[in-house]
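Incident log, support desk, overnight shift.

02:14 A customer reports that sequence design results differ from what the structure should imply. Their input is reproduced verbatim below. On-call engineer (initials T.W.) acknowledged and began investigating.
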């Protein structure tokens, strides 16, 4: 595989993780919200960790399994962001911005997973 650091899904998932870390800090300091933001921190940073691990996968099934885990974590992150927005911890604009990034990751990961498991070995 080409350089992992220049891989689109690796870069986007890492950028999303950074946003989740910064959002957690904001929510704790400004809104005194700790529980949901902790869940988002865990799932949001897990996306990139699983992507990076997948890119070092030894086999196609190994790669596909890790990318599928990343997809599940991105879906979980979407849920936590929606909750934060619907409970007014995030403004509509803040929530939509995070959701846009998260849903783009979901689209990319869905495509990768489908291609990996439907491609001939």
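02:41 Re-run completed on a clean worker. Output:
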């Amino acid at each position: 595989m080409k350089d992992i650091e220049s891989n689109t899904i690796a870069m986007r998932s890492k950028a999303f993780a950074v946003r989740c870390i910064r959002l957690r800090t904001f929510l704790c300091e400004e809104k005194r919200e700790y529980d949901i933001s902790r869940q988002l921190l865990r799932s949001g940073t897990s996306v990139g960790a699983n992507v990076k691990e997948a890119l070092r996968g030894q086999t196609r099934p190994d790669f596909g399994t890790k990318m599928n885990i990343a997809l599940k974590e991105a879906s979980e992150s979407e849920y936590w962001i929606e909750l934060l927005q619907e409970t007014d911890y995030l403004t509509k604009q803040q929530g939509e911005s995070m959701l846009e990034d998260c849903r783009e990751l979901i689209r990319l990961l869905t495509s990768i997973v489908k291609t990996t498991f439907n491609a001939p070995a």
